[in-house]
């Protein structure tokens, strides 16, 4: 099964996590983690479930069971949903198995995300970097971000200031 090195820390950082695990003969054969929040689409706010992780035991991979297991996990998640909810996830380009599973469950691709990774282990110290802890400053940043992304879809600001871990670059008192 898929593992993180520091799952206790990572779990605590997730916003409203929900884990579903399927067991067979007291052995976990599949698991899925989703997070619940709200997202904006066309100026409207909707409940959402973001699929963060899906894993299947090696013993069931390649047997056709993974497709059935993923469908069962989704049915369990849907049964727990009381109102209109947008379900979405991000699948890495080369993960052909998950692309196939998502397609078989009638999920449709919305677009491609390109990201640039960087290390936050040893950032250079700069006086321009400001730790945003004041609630008035956070409200101002949130207002600016909502304005900036008002025409975008699947926007989620629910956990933006979680764990008081938000920084901005200030130049010319802005």
Highlighted features:
4 helices; 174 residues; alpha+beta; Aminopeptidase; two-stranded antiparallel ribbon; single chain; 4-stranded mixed beta sheet
Termini separation: 46 Å
* Helix/strand order: HEEEHEHEHE
Strand order of the largest sheet: 1-2-3-4
In the predicted model, the low-confidence regions spanning at least 5 consecutive residues are: none
Relative helix content? 25-40%
Number of helices: 4
Task: Summarize the biggest pleated sheet.
Answer: 4 strands, mixed
For the record, the CATH class of the largest domain is Alpha Beta
Structural class category? alpha+beta
Looking at the structure, the CATH topology of the largest domain is Aminopeptidase
Radius of gyration: 19 Å
Overall, the morphology is: elongated
Determine the strand fraction and express it as a percent band.
25-35%
Q: Count the E strands.
A: 6
Outline the secondary-structure elements:
Elements: H1 7-13, E1 17-24, E2 27-41, E3 44-56, H2 65-79, E4 85-89, H3 96-104, E5 129-131, H4 135-148, E6 167-169
Parallel strand pairs: 3-4
Antiparallel strand pairs: 1-2, 2-3, 5-6
């Amino acid at each position: 099964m898929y593992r993180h090195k520091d799952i206790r820390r990572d779990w605590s950082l997730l916003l409203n996590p929900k884990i579903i695990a399927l067991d067979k003969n007291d052995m976990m054969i599949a698991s899925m983690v989703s997070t619940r929040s709200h997202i904006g689409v066309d100026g409207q706010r909707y409940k959402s479930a973001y699929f963060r992780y899906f894993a299947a035991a090696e013993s069931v991979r390649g047997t056709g069971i993974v497709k059935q297991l993923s469908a069962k996990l989704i049915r369990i998640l849907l049964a727990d949903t009381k109102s209109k909810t947008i379900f979405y996830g991000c699948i890495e380009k080369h993960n052909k198995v998950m692309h196939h599973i998502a397609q078989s469950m009638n999920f449709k691709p919305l677009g491609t995300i390109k990201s640039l990774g960087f290390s936050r282990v040893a950032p250079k110290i700069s006086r321009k970097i400001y730790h945003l802890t004041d609630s008035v400053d956070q409200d101002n940043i949130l207002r600016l971000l909502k304005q900036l992304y008002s025409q975008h879809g699947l926007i989620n600001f629910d956990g933006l200031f979680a764990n008081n871990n938000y920084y901005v670059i200030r130049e010319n008192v802005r």
